[in-house]
Amino acid sequence: MERKRIAIIGVGLIGGSLAIRLHEKKISSRLIGVDASKENEAKALELELVDEILPLDEAIAQSDVIVLAFPVDKMVSLLPSILDKIENQIVIDLGSTKSQLTEAVGNHPKRGRYVATHPMWGTEYSGPAAAVRNAYENKAVIICDEGDSDLDALEWTKAMYKKIGMHLLNMEAKAHDLHAAYVSHISHITSFALANTVLQKEKEDNAIFEMASAGFESTVRLAKSNPAMWVPIFIQNKENVLDVLNEHIEQLKKFRDKIEESNEQELRGLIEHANNIKRIIK
After folding, report:
1. For the domain bounded by 176-279, which CATH number is listed?
2. pLDDT tens digits for 7-22?
3. Which of 45, 57, 225 shows the shortest CA–CA distance to 125?
4. What is the Cα–Cα distance from 7 to 4, expressed in whole angstroms?
5. pTM over 0.85
6. What does the record list as coiled-coil region(s) (predicted)?
Protein backbone atom coordinates (compact mmCIF):
# COMPACT_ATOMS: atom_id res chain seq x y z
CA MET A 1 0.00 0.00 0.00
CA GLU A 2 1.10 3.56 -0.66
CA ARG A 3 2.93 5.15 2.25
CA LYS A 4 1.25 8.26 3.59
CA ARG A 5 1.96 11.21 5.84
CA ILE A 6 -0.02 10.41 8.97
CA ALA A 7 -0.95 12.69 11.86
CA ILE A 8 -1.82 11.05 15.17
CA ILE A 9 -3.89 13.33 17.39
CA GLY A 10 -3.31 11.91 20.87
CA VAL A 11 0.07 10.20 21.27
CA GLY A 12 -0.67 8.19 24.43
CA LEU A 13 -1.07 4.44 24.83
CA ILE A 14 -3.43 3.85 21.88
CA GLY A 15 -2.01 6.38 19.45
CA GLY A 16 1.58 5.65 20.43
CA SER A 17 1.15 1.90 20.01
CA LEU A 18 -0.36 2.46 16.56
CA ALA A 19 2.54 4.74 15.67
CA ILE A 20 5.02 1.92 16.37
CA ARG A 21 3.16 -0.39 14.00
CA LEU A 22 2.84 2.27 11.29
CA HIS A 23 6.62 2.73 11.44
CA GLU A 24 7.43 -0.97 11.47
CA LYS A 25 5.06 -1.90 8.65
CA LYS A 26 6.23 1.02 6.50
CA ILE A 27 2.72 2.39 6.22
CA SER A 28 3.78 5.95 7.07
CA SER A 29 6.23 8.10 5.16
CA ARG A 30 6.15 10.61 8.02
CA LEU A 31 4.43 10.54 11.39
CA ILE A 32 3.24 13.81 12.91
CA GLY A 33 2.18 13.94 16.56
CA VAL A 34 -0.30 16.27 18.25
CA ASP A 35 -1.33 16.11 21.90
CA ALA A 36 -3.04 18.37 24.43
CA SER A 37 -0.20 17.55 26.85
CA LYS A 38 3.19 19.10 26.13
CA GLU A 39 4.70 16.37 28.31
CA ASN A 40 3.17 13.69 26.09
CA GLU A 41 4.41 15.44 22.98
CA ALA A 42 7.95 15.65 24.34
CA LYS A 43 7.90 12.00 25.42
CA ALA A 44 6.56 10.82 22.07
CA LEU A 45 9.45 12.60 20.35
CA GLU A 46 11.97 11.24 22.82
CA LEU A 47 10.74 7.68 22.28
CA GLU A 48 10.69 8.25 18.49
CA LEU A 49 7.03 7.33 18.28
CA VAL A 50 6.58 10.27 15.90
CA ASP A 51 8.92 12.16 13.60
CA GLU A 52 7.77 15.63 14.61
CA ILE A 53 5.26 17.53 16.71
CA LEU A 54 3.07 20.19 15.09
CA PRO A 55 0.08 22.33 16.11
CA LEU A 56 -3.24 20.76 15.12
CA ASP A 57 -4.00 22.93 12.09
CA GLU A 58 -0.50 22.47 10.65
CA ALA A 59 -0.67 18.72 11.24
CA ILE A 60 -3.98 18.53 9.38
CA ALA A 61 -2.65 20.57 6.45
CA GLN A 62 0.51 18.48 6.12
CA SER A 63 -1.09 15.03 6.42
CA ASP A 64 -2.78 12.54 4.12
CA VAL A 65 -4.35 10.64 7.02
CA ILE A 66 -5.48 11.97 10.40
CA VAL A 67 -5.92 9.50 13.28
CA LEU A 68 -7.91 10.52 16.36
CA ALA A 69 -6.75 8.75 19.53
CA PHE A 70 -7.99 10.77 22.50
CA PRO A 71 -11.01 10.67 24.90
CA VAL A 72 -14.36 10.31 23.16
CA ASP A 73 -15.98 13.38 24.72
CA LYS A 74 -13.37 15.57 23.03
CA MET A 75 -13.87 13.73 19.73
CA VAL A 76 -17.55 14.68 19.50
CA SER A 77 -16.66 18.38 19.50
CA LEU A 78 -13.37 18.16 17.58
CA LEU A 79 -14.24 15.78 14.73
CA PRO A 80 -16.66 18.17 12.97
CA SER A 81 -14.10 20.98 13.09
CA ILE A 82 -11.40 18.68 11.71
CA LEU A 83 -13.67 17.71 8.82
CA ASP A 84 -14.22 21.43 8.21
CA LYS A 85 -10.47 21.87 7.67
CA ILE A 86 -9.59 18.92 5.45
CA GLU A 87 -9.47 18.75 1.66
CA ASN A 88 -9.31 15.08 0.67
CA GLN A 89 -7.54 13.60 3.71
CA ILE A 90 -8.76 10.44 5.42
CA VAL A 91 -9.89 10.86 9.04
CA ILE A 92 -9.98 7.77 11.29
CA ASP A 93 -10.98 7.59 14.95
CA LEU A 94 -10.01 4.87 17.45
CA GLY A 95 -12.68 5.62 20.05
CA SER A 96 -14.57 3.11 22.19
CA THR A 97 -18.04 4.57 21.54
CA LYS A 98 -19.52 5.37 18.17
CA SER A 99 -23.18 6.50 18.17
CA GLN A 100 -22.70 10.09 19.38
CA LEU A 101 -19.65 10.52 17.19
CA THR A 102 -21.28 9.34 13.96
CA GLU A 103 -24.41 11.36 14.74
CA ALA A 104 -22.29 14.50 15.25
CA VAL A 105 -21.03 14.34 11.66
CA GLY A 106 -23.94 12.55 9.99
CA ASN A 107 -24.84 15.53 7.83
CA HIS A 108 -21.35 16.95 7.39
CA PRO A 109 -20.42 17.53 3.73
CA LYS A 110 -17.08 15.75 4.31
CA ARG A 111 -18.64 12.78 6.17
CA GLY A 112 -17.34 10.41 3.49
CA ARG A 113 -13.72 11.18 4.37
CA TYR A 114 -14.28 9.83 7.90
CA VAL A 115 -14.00 6.14 8.85
CA ALA A 116 -15.35 5.18 12.29
CA THR A 117 -13.26 2.40 13.85
CA HIS A 118 -12.60 0.76 17.21
CA PRO A 119 -9.50 -1.44 17.57
CA MET A 120 -10.31 -3.87 20.38
CA TRP A 121 -7.11 -3.50 22.32
CA GLY A 122 -5.88 -1.56 25.33
CA THR A 123 -4.17 -1.85 28.69
CA GLU A 124 -4.68 -0.27 32.09
CA TYR A 125 -1.75 2.09 31.48
CA SER A 126 -1.67 5.46 29.74
CA GLY A 127 0.73 7.89 28.11
CA PRO A 128 3.39 7.52 25.39
CA ALA A 129 5.72 5.51 27.65
CA ALA A 130 3.01 2.84 27.87
CA ALA A 131 2.99 2.27 24.09
CA VAL A 132 3.37 -1.40 23.21
CA ARG A 133 5.00 -3.10 20.24
CA ASN A 134 2.76 -5.62 18.41
CA ALA A 135 -0.20 -4.24 20.36
CA TYR A 136 -2.78 -4.79 17.64
CA GLU A 137 -1.52 -8.15 16.37
CA ASN A 138 -4.33 -10.76 16.06
CA LYS A 139 -6.92 -8.45 17.58
CA ALA A 140 -10.28 -7.39 16.14
CA VAL A 141 -11.09 -3.94 14.82
CA ILE A 142 -14.70 -2.85 14.42
CA ILE A 143 -15.46 -0.65 11.42
CA CYS A 144 -18.80 1.11 11.83
CA ASP A 145 -21.29 2.30 9.22
CA GLU A 146 -19.09 1.42 6.25
CA GLY A 147 -21.61 2.73 3.75
CA ASP A 148 -21.20 6.29 5.03
CA SER A 149 -17.47 6.39 4.19
CA ASP A 150 -15.96 7.02 0.75
CA LEU A 151 -14.70 3.84 -0.86
CA ASP A 152 -11.07 4.97 -1.13
CA ALA A 153 -10.98 6.06 2.52
CA LEU A 154 -12.58 2.81 3.63
CA GLU A 155 -10.30 0.58 1.56
CA TRP A 156 -7.11 2.33 2.73
CA THR A 157 -8.24 2.06 6.35
CA LYS A 158 -9.01 -1.65 5.99
CA ALA A 159 -5.67 -2.30 4.30
CA MET A 160 -3.84 -0.45 7.08
CA TYR A 161 -5.52 -2.49 9.81
CA LYS A 162 -4.86 -5.75 7.99
CA LYS A 163 -1.21 -4.86 7.54
CA ILE A 164 -0.72 -4.25 11.27
CA GLY A 165 -2.20 -7.70 11.95
CA MET A 166 -5.84 -7.05 12.81
CA HIS A 167 -8.97 -8.85 11.59
CA LEU A 168 -11.95 -6.76 10.53
CA LEU A 169 -15.55 -6.76 11.75
CA ASN A 170 -18.35 -4.56 10.43
CA MET A 171 -21.15 -3.19 12.64
CA GLU A 172 -23.61 -0.35 12.77
CA ALA A 173 -22.60 2.26 15.34
CA LYS A 174 -25.54 1.54 17.67
CA ALA A 175 -24.90 -2.21 17.58
CA HIS A 176 -21.23 -1.58 18.32
CA ASP A 177 -22.05 0.46 21.41
CA LEU A 178 -24.42 -2.21 22.70
CA HIS A 179 -21.91 -5.04 22.30
CA ALA A 180 -19.02 -2.93 23.62
CA ALA A 181 -20.99 -2.32 26.81
CA TYR A 182 -21.32 -6.06 27.36
CA VAL A 183 -17.80 -7.21 26.49
CA SER A 184 -15.66 -4.21 27.42
CA HIS A 185 -17.29 -1.44 29.42
CA ILE A 186 -18.80 -3.67 32.12
CA SER A 187 -15.39 -5.28 32.71
CA HIS A 188 -13.97 -1.91 33.65
CA ILE A 189 -16.90 -0.97 35.89
CA THR A 190 -16.63 -4.32 37.67
CA SER A 191 -12.91 -3.85 38.15
CA PHE A 192 -13.32 -0.29 39.50
CA ALA A 193 -16.05 -1.46 41.88
CA LEU A 194 -14.06 -4.46 43.10
CA ALA A 195 -11.02 -2.28 43.76
CA ASN A 196 -13.16 0.16 45.74
CA THR A 197 -14.68 -2.75 47.69
CA VAL A 198 -11.28 -4.09 48.68
CA LEU A 199 -9.91 -0.64 49.48
CA GLN A 200 -12.98 0.04 51.65
CA LYS A 201 -12.96 -3.27 53.53
CA GLU A 202 -9.25 -4.05 53.71
CA LYS A 203 -7.51 -1.18 55.47
CA GLU A 204 -4.10 -2.82 55.57
CA ASP A 205 -2.20 -2.13 52.34
CA ASN A 206 0.31 -4.83 53.18
CA ALA A 207 -2.42 -7.45 53.48
CA ILE A 208 -3.71 -6.58 50.01
CA PHE A 209 -0.19 -6.68 48.59
CA GLU A 210 0.84 -9.92 50.27
CA MET A 211 -2.37 -11.88 49.83
CA ALA A 212 -3.44 -10.73 46.35
CA SER A 213 -3.28 -13.79 44.10
CA ALA A 214 -2.87 -13.86 40.37
CA GLY A 215 -6.64 -14.23 40.07
CA PHE A 216 -7.29 -11.05 42.02
CA GLU A 217 -4.63 -9.14 40.09
CA SER A 218 -6.05 -10.14 36.70
CA THR A 219 -9.59 -9.24 37.80
CA VAL A 220 -8.75 -5.88 39.28
CA ARG A 221 -5.94 -4.71 36.98
CA LEU A 222 -8.38 -2.65 34.88
CA ALA A 223 -9.05 -0.51 37.96
CA LYS A 224 -5.73 1.22 37.18
CA SER A 225 -7.22 2.58 33.93
CA ASN A 226 -7.29 6.31 33.26
CA PRO A 227 -10.55 8.03 34.38
CA ALA A 228 -10.06 10.70 31.67
CA MET A 229 -10.71 7.95 29.13
CA TRP A 230 -13.39 5.93 30.90
CA VAL A 231 -15.71 8.56 32.38
CA PRO A 232 -16.64 9.89 28.89
CA ILE A 233 -17.14 6.32 27.59
CA PHE A 234 -19.56 5.47 30.41
CA ILE A 235 -21.50 8.72 29.97
CA GLN A 236 -21.68 8.55 26.16
CA ASN A 237 -22.81 4.91 26.27
CA LYS A 238 -24.99 5.44 29.34
CA GLU A 239 -28.10 3.62 28.10
CA ASN A 240 -26.24 0.42 27.20
CA VAL A 241 -23.94 0.59 30.22
CA LEU A 242 -26.90 0.94 32.60
CA ASP A 243 -28.60 -2.01 30.91
CA VAL A 244 -25.64 -4.32 31.37
CA LEU A 245 -24.89 -2.93 34.84
CA ASN A 246 -28.43 -3.64 36.04
CA GLU A 247 -28.18 -7.20 34.73
CA HIS A 248 -24.80 -7.62 36.43
CA ILE A 249 -26.27 -6.41 39.73
CA GLU A 250 -29.08 -8.97 39.38
CA GLN A 251 -26.52 -11.73 38.82
CA LEU A 252 -24.57 -10.62 41.91
CA LYS A 253 -27.79 -10.71 43.92
CA LYS A 254 -28.36 -14.33 42.85
CA PHE A 255 -24.93 -15.30 44.18
CA ARG A 256 -25.50 -13.32 47.37
CA ASP A 257 -28.89 -14.98 47.97
CA LYS A 258 -27.69 -18.55 47.37
CA ILE A 259 -24.68 -18.06 49.63
CA GLU A 260 -26.89 -16.50 52.32
CA GLU A 261 -29.24 -19.50 52.08
CA SER A 262 -26.34 -21.98 52.05
CA ASN A 263 -28.00 -23.39 48.94
CA GLU A 264 -25.15 -25.49 47.57
CA GLN A 265 -27.09 -26.99 44.70
CA GLU A 266 -28.29 -23.71 43.17
CA LEU A 267 -24.94 -22.04 43.85
CA ARG A 268 -23.26 -24.87 41.96
CA GLY A 269 -25.78 -24.34 39.15
CA LEU A 270 -24.87 -20.65 38.87
CA ILE A 271 -21.18 -21.49 38.64
CA GLU A 272 -21.72 -24.31 36.15
CA HIS A 273 -23.78 -22.00 33.96
CA ALA A 274 -20.97 -19.44 34.10
CA ASN A 275 -18.54 -22.18 33.05
CA ASN A 276 -20.25 -22.20 29.64
CA ILE A 277 -18.21 -19.10 28.77
CA LYS A 278 -15.34 -21.49 28.00
CA ARG A 279 -17.16 -22.39 24.77
CA ILE A 280 -16.41 -18.88 23.57
CA ILE A 281 -13.26 -17.85 25.47
CA LYS A 282 -10.52 -20.46 25.80
Report:
1. 1.10.3660.10
2. 999 999 999 999 999 9
3. 225
4. 10
5. yes
6. 235-265
